[in-house]
Amino acid sequence: MRIAIIGVTGAGKSALANTILMEKKFLSLPSCESVTEKCQKEITRFENRSVVVVDTPGFNDTRMEKRHLIKKEVSTCILMLEPGPHAFLIVLNPNRFLEEERKCLTNIEHLFGAKEFYKFCIVVFTREKEILDAFRSVEEFISRNTCSDVKDVVRKCSNRVMTVENLTPFSELKKELILNRIKDLTLKNREAYFPHIYFRTANILKRNSEYAKASKQKIEELQNIIDELTKKIEKMEMEKYQKQNQKGSEISVLYVRERKKTGVQKESSVCGIL
């Protein structure tokens, strides 16, 4: 299961990611500036299944020096979630929905296309305690205390919405509540993941990269085998050459001995004649 957590700066994305993991793996601080400037990927387990959680930087940051970094991190996020996420968690602060939030969702819609994107989305409101202290349910809160833009986002997500309290200690129950909602969404989508071409392309690039890496490894292994065989052949040739030289030397010694012996015999014969 692959989950992407998205939203504006300061909405509580990293805190939500930590709640799912039940440990502080993502940096989470009260800040009006983005704490998460790079995509981060962590893995947990749920019902004997791996769950990939990717925290993303705030998509609303329009400062010129940050825009190229955000573009780069979007690409990184896509690679981390290939071949596609099973769910996007849209994190919203219940106390505001301003131009920043509108820009954030507009940017994402332009990136992925609104029609398919929202089929894989769940709206998550942080500060659950504040909401439920003032309203009987999150549905009542949305109906009575949110602007038309928030209602529109919830409607696009087919009313899939939940609340999370990130300030309380981690618990298995909180983790299960969140992941069961995501599980329900994946079952509704028949275990399908978001089929956008960006993620499919990332998957193809990864497979090609792995194939190239595997091929390179096989070539290196083959080259090592060839090198070892070459060394063995050279050793055998050297031993053969040394044996031949040794045999040649032995023949030379025997030849010299025979010559000397023959010479002595000849000399004796001559003396006998005289």
TrEMBL record:
It holds the Pfam family AIG1. Gene3D superfamilies: P-loop containing nucleotide triphosphate hydrolases. Residues 212-246 form a coiled coil. One of its GO terms (molecular function) is GTP binding. Keywords: Coiled coil, GTP-binding, Nucleotide-binding. Residues 1-203 form the AIG1-type G domain. Transmembrane segments: none annotated. SUPFAM superfamilies: P-loop containing nucleoside triphosphate hydrolases. InterPro entries: G_AIG1 (IPR006703), GIMA/IAN/Toc (IPR045058), P-loop_NTPase (IPR027417). Belongs to the TRAFAC class TrmE-Era-EngA-EngB-Septin-like GTPase superfamily. AIG1/Toc34/Toc159-like paraseptin GTPase family. IAN subfamily. This is AIG1-type G domain-containing protein.
